Amino acid sequence: MLTRRRLLQLSGGVAALGLGGGAAYGSLVELHGLRLVRRPLPVENLPDAWVGRTIVQLTDVHVGPHVADDYVLRTFDAVARLAPDVLVVTGDLTSDERGIVEHAQRIYAHLPAGRLATLAILGNHDYGRDWKDLAHADALVAALSDRMRFLRNESIEVDGLRFFGTEDLWSEQLSLRTTLRGIDPDSPAVGLVHNPDAIDLGGWGGYRGWVLSGHTHGGQVRPPIGPPPMLPIVNRWYASGEFEIDGGRRLYVCPGVGHAIVPIRINCPPEVAVHTLLRA
Ligand SMILES: [Fe+2]
């Protein structure tokens, strides 16, 4: 598992590499050059009413000391203009700092609502110190629950389509067994899991649908060849994009909105994903 210290070492290396023009470009241009990525989301046995509806995915916003509040608010405006049927926030809503719960409450007060639902899961940064401060996570959830419904190893049905969401992998609270309890593998569902490494865990049962993830930031810096050097995941295939997994699961890893620790994105623009549902 990638420790905070190792992540800082990697981040420092990348920062040192990028002290030339690349860093200036990444900091000044691409860091806030948000892309809207529109993609189909084919779901087996999708109810008629859901065909053509949109799930807008916001991930890794990282409200806190590293990401400018006005950029986050502009991103929320862009999401509002998309008028999502469901808005999902797939973790790392925050970066830890003194007073982050109050800061997050001020910013997320401006989060637009999905027409049918606004759902969220926590990412490792939302658990505070060493990713394992459950009191911190509980305080954050309590502060933001008037804006979004958090799924913490549980599922919820929205107009005939089930959404499930897990606790974060690094918090050591993630339980697929608890999350998927009572879910019929043949009924339509969409999963929210912050860290894409969780797709390789045992315990998925017969689930064959989509899992929407974030966590990687796409690596923040993508070299022309080879994987990004700064990837906080074990399975380095899952930097960003779409993956077919053994057992029929499908994974989408969104590079996300914000950044952590190093204010840099090179060849890896921030993204909001707009998933349009269709029948598989
Ligand atoms: Fe993140």
TrEMBL record:
Domain of life: Bacteria
Keywords: Hydrolase, Metal-binding
GO annotation, cellular component aspect: membrane
Keyword Glycoprotein: no
Location of the Calcineurin-like phosphoesterase domain: 54-218
GO biological process: lipid A biosynthetic process
InterPro entries documented for this protein: Calcineurin-like_PHP, Metallo-depent_PP-like, Metallophosphoesterase_sf
A GO term, aspect molecular function: metal ion binding
Name the record gives this protein: Phosphoesterase
Species assigned in the record: Propioniciclava tarda
Lineage: Bacteria, Bacillati, Actinomycetota, Actinomycetes, Propionibacteriales
